[in-house]
Amino acid sequence: MVVIAIFATLVALAAPSFRPLVERWRVRDATETLQSTIYYARSEAIKRSGNVIIIKGGDTAVCSTMTTAQWSCGWSVFFDANGNGTQDTCVPGATPNECELQRVEAPTRLNINLPGSTGRITVDRWGMLSNTGGAAVPTAMAFELIPKDKTIADVSAARVCVASSGRIARKKGSEAC
């Protein structure tokens, strides 16, 4: 019993020091997932001659109340076959179709923001990215990945800088792109 009591005391003392480690891991995991999605969307856009869209998730009641700049509910990638900028009903037998190419679920205890976003990122046939509502004007963007109940200045926060050409750089949350 004495050994168990000493072990429990040590665990209680050590547990708070693991929180920043877990937060940094969550941010890193979401950063790598976001980067992978962007690279995938670019390759699909080049393969399909454009019209690939990354759209923020919003299926739940909580997600539907978020602004277009908040990407914390995950995202999906689809080919916009008719070029209307929205995902139409998926018809698997149709070619081409507007079925999801990739879906990323919401990260755990993490806020992801894309200031100035329309809720979607379009990728043209050259792999250029735009988050202003159309692929006509490529734009640079900066995602902010912040652990829940923290600020962008927190040591665990990160900023993912995406150039209009698709080049991606990860920076500390307090650093500018």
Give the topology, please.
Blueprint: H1 2-48, E1 52-56, H2 61-64, E2 75-79, E3 100-104, E4 110-113, E5 120-123, E6 129-130, E7 141-147, E8 158-162, E9 168-172
Antiparallel strand pairs: 1-2, 1-5, 2-3, 4-7, 5-6, 7-8, 8-9
> In the CATH hierarchy, what is the superfamily?
minor pseudopilin epsh domain
- Which structural class should the secondary elements be placed in? alpha+beta
Shape descriptor: elongated
| Terminal residue distance | 55 Å
The CATH topology: minor pseudopilin epsh fold
Molecular structure report:
The protein is an alpha+beta fold. The chain contains 2 helices and 9 strands, in the order αβαββββββββ. It has one domain (16-172): minor pseudopilin epsh domain (minor pseudopilin epsh fold), CATH 3.55.40. The chain has helices spanning 2-48, 61-64, and strands at residues 52-56, 75-79, 100-104, 110-113, 120-123, 129-130, 141-147, 158-162, 168-172. It has a 5-stranded antiparallel β-sheet, covered by helices on one side. Strands 4-7-8-9 form a 4-stranded antiparallel β-sheet, covered by helices on one side.
